[in-house]
């Protein structure tokens, strides 16, 4: 097991590549958590160092200190990984662990405090110490692909919230159908059938929508 390291203020500032004065400023602005105090000595740890490096990375990407302060507050008060994943529940989705820097790199310029809060409220993101946890590798890849295509992350998240409502309704429909004819333990075994129906119907619906768009586009 890795031994927890602690640092005095001057050492932490040196490791983070900032001045002690800057470190004090960040602490006063509550950009980093309070240190552990032993008498008059303040002790910082690797959590503080990771946060300082995150601040530096976000500043390099053009974020303001006010925006970073809101992000820091969201990190500290976000849903933890247990709440996010629902410990003990079966799932076919693979969670992804990310540092704040990795998240910022995936969504260049789009990781605003508003978008971060929306992703946490939606249940896409949770926190686990210094890391963020995205609930689904597939959703993360699709979201970042849409943003690369020029769609703002805020609109992607709004669409995700609407999809969530429809998905919950479809899950209820399938579950009620099964439970009328089979015991509850069959739900997990038969879930691939529900997924296949939904994927096929969505594919057919997109075909219809594309054909409709083509007809409308061809009208004079």
From TrEMBL:
The keyword Signal does not apply. Residues 6-74 form the HTH merR-type domain. InterPro entries: DNA-bd_dom_put_sf, MerR-type_HTH_dom, MerR_fam. It holds the Pfam family MerR_1. Keywords: DNA-binding. PANTHER family: HTH MERR-TYPE DOMAIN-CONTAINING PROTEIN (PTHR30204:SF93), REDOX-CYCLING DRUG-SENSING TRANSCRIPTIONAL ACTIVATOR SOXR (PTHR30204). This is MerR family transcriptional regulator. The lineage of its organism: Bacteria, Bacillati, Actinomycetota, Actinomycetes, Kitasatosporales.
């Amino acid at each position: 097991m890795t031994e927890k390291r602690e640092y005095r203020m001057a050492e932490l500032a040196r490791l983070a590549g900032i001045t002690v004065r800057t470190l004090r400023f960040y602490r006063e602005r509550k950009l980093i958590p309070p240190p552990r105090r032993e008498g008059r000595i303040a002790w910082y740890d690797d959590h503080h160092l990771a946060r300082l490096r995150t601040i530096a990375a976000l500043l390099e990407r053009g974020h303001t200190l006010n925006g970073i302060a809101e992000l820091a507050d969201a990190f500290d008060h976000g849903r933890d990984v247990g709440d996010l994943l629902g410990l003990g529940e079966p799932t076919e989705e693979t969670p992804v662990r990310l540092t704040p820097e990795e998240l910022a790199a995936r969504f260049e310029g789009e990781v605003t405090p508003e978008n971060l809060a929306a992703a946490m409220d939606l249940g896409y993101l949770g926190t686990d110490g210094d890391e963020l946890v995205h609930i689904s590798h597939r959703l993360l890849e699709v979201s970042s692909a849409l943003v690369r295509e020029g769609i703002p992350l805020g609109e992607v998240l709004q669409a995700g919230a609407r999809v969530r409502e429809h998905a919950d309704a479809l899950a209820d429909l399938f579950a009620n159908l099964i439970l009328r004819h089979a015991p509850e333990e069959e739900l997990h075994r038969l879930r691939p059938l529900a997924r296949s129906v939904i994927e096929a119907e969505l594919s057919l619906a997109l075909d219809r929508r594309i054909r409709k768009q083509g007809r409308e586009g061809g009208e004079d």
